[in-house]
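Researcher: Here's the sequence for the chain we discussed earlier.
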Amino acid sequence: QVQLVESGGGLVQAGGSLRLSCAASGSIFRLAIMGWYRQAPGKQRELVASVTSGGSTNYADAVKGRFTISRDNAKNTMYLQMNSLNPEDTAVYYCNLYLGSAYDYWGQGTQVTVSS
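Model: Thanks. This is the structure I predict for it:
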């Protein structure tokens, strides 16, 4: 069983920055595709960014150039550096670990609120 714990969310003014962290338990972190998703009120959950076990990254168009995803396999931790935040980034941000359909885990989410 894998547990994912997000941290780093909060309230920030437009133009500001936040850094989210996702700490994973267990031994499969280094093998897994890790991702950050977000869900705004009344909207579907959407992929923000992902990083493979080899370090390849993928970003949603809405965050390219502003957000940076990274991982530290030695610490079983993934990060999301979010810069130039705007009110449209307000959402609950979720961490996901994926290593096939039998290994698909979610964190509890962390709220990010950007005020204008």
